[in-house]
């Protein structure tokens, strides 16, 4: 049998891993600038957490979760998204006792059984942030601005921010009633998913990508017409903060997101010039989720994106995300005497934070020099038996080809000084 990766998964090989590392390191740098702390949660949770947290009527819970029964008879699910797990940890470990809002970020694999396509996999790596403990509209604006700064710092431009308020339990029932009444007359023309949504989660119909459904709902009432005073004021303040920061946005009253826990602010960031990739990230406020999962009535907001999708967007823009991936020093050795001391010298160099490599294949000097070129070495140390006897090493600067003999005992301080 010829083994291959399962459908909807992928191996991330060295060159691609460099781009992923660029995305992760850029994200962590931005998050820490905004005072976010990292959290890591298990990749599987009790199934009920997602049923209650994400929503039983969502596509994720109904169609896309990887659920299994363990040997103890417990129903467990590979996490399909990160927010529910973070909120569960927030409640379980009583993080709400902190006097300040809790700012967290996470990076890890998620799992959804859906049709694999470009930028969308069954196992994907999600980067996300959550702020728990404040309902201040300024937090909404901060989260949105941080997401935009993050993508800009990665090199993505021409971003379009779409925002909406999806209301709250006070005003949403009024909109639901109006929407259901409007759509009942065309129910049989809706797609099968939307026919089901009409009874259980009608607002999701506004977000359907089916062209027929989009046409049938183009004149449907939207939530912005029915917002309560609290939600309307909150939304106006979020927009005011965005205006102050010079962040442009488009109001999209049909933007509802795909998860049941969203309240008030919902947003998406879309790239205008990367074609099919489209939406880079999405997020919003979830003021009832903590209570739904068993905690106190604590407000929250966050966003998330998949590394796969951002990597695709960066590649389409010609951004390879290469960090300094070359080695500082490549150690060319010729003969047994030289080889016998090479590991000690390499180890000493690495202890000083110097990226050092050597030949392990017994190749000739010419092949070793080619290896140094491939590894983009800044310097090459050449040590043969003759140099060994003289307690010297040849140090070559690969940027200009200049080389000189250096006493072996001086090589580490010299390289440390040059590479600072």
Ordered list of secondary-structure elements with their pairings:
Elements: H1 14-33, E1 37-38, E2 44-46, H2 47-53, H3 59-64, E3 66-69, E4 75-78, H4 83-92, E5 102-111, E6 123-132, H5 137-154, E7 159-165, H6 172-184, H7 192-200, H8 211-216, H9 229-244, E8 250-251, E9 263-271, E10 279-285, H10 289-292, E11 300-306, H11 307-316, E12 329-334, H12 336-351, E13 356-358, H13 365-374, E14 379-384, H14 385-389, E15 392-397, E16 403-407, H15 411-418
Parallel strand pairs: 1-5, 7-8, 12-13, 12-14
Antiparallel strand pairs: 2-4, 3-4, 5-6, 6-11, 7-9, 9-10, 10-11, 14-15, 15-16
Helix pairs in contact: 1-5, 1-11, 5-9
Task: List descriptors.
420 residues; alpha+beta; BirA Bifunctional Protein, domain 2; Rossmann fold; 2 domains; 8-stranded mixed β-sheet; 5-stranded mixed β-sheet; 16 strands; 22% strand
């Amino acid at each position: 049998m010829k083994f291959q990766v399962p459908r909807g998964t992928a191996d991330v090989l060295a060159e691609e891993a460099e781009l992923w590392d660029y995305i992760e390191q850029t994200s962590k740098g931005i998050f820490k600038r905004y005072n976010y702390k990292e959290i890591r949660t298990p990749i599987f949770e009790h199934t009920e957490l997602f049923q209650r947290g994400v929503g039983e009527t969502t596509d994720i819970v109904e169609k896309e979760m990887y659920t299994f029964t363990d040997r103890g008879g417990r129903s467990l699910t590979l996490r399909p998204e990160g927010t529910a797990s973070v909120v569960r940890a927030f409640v379980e470990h009583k993080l709400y006792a902190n006097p300040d809002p809790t700012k967290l970020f996470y990076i890890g694999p998620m799992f959804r059984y859906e049709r694999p396509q470009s930028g969308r996999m069954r196992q994907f790596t999600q980067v996300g942030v959550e702020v728990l403990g404040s309902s201040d509209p300024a937090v909404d604006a901060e989260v949105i601005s941080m997401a935009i700064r993050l993508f800009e710092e990665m090199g993505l431009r021409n971003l379009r921010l779409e925002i909406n308020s999806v209301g709250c339990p006070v005003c949403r029932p009024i909109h639901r009633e109006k929407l259901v009444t409007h759509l009942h007359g065309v129910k049989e023309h809706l797609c099968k998913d939307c026919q089901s949504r009409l009874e259980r989660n009608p607002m999701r119909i506004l977000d359907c990508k089916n062209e027929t459904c989009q046409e049938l709902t183009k004149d449907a009432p939207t939530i912005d017409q029915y917002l309560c005073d609290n939600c309307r004021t909150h939304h106006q303040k979020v927009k005011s903060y965005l205006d102050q920061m010079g962040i442009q946005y488009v109001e999209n009253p049909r933007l509802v997101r795909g998860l049941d826990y969203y309240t008030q602010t919902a947003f998406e960031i879309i790239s205008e010039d990367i074609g099919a990739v489209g939406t880079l990230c999405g997020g919003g406020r979830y003021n009832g989720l903590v209570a739904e999962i068993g905690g106190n009535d604590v407000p929250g907001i966050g966003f998330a994106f998949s590394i796969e999708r951002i990597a695709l967007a960066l590649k389409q823009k010609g951004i390879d995300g290469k960090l300094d991936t070359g080695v500082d020093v490549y150690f060319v050795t010729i003969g047994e005497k030289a080889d016998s001391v090479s590991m000690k010298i390499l180890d000493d160099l690495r202890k000083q934070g110097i990226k050092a490599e050597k030949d392990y294949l017994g190749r000739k000097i010419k092949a070793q020099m080619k290896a140094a070129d491939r590894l983009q070495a800044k310097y090459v140390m050449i040590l043969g038996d003759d140099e060994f006897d003289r307690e010297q090493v040849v140090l070559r600067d690969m940027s200009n080809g200049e080389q000189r003999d250096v006493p072996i005992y001086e090589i580490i301080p010299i390289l440390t000084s040059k590479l600072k």
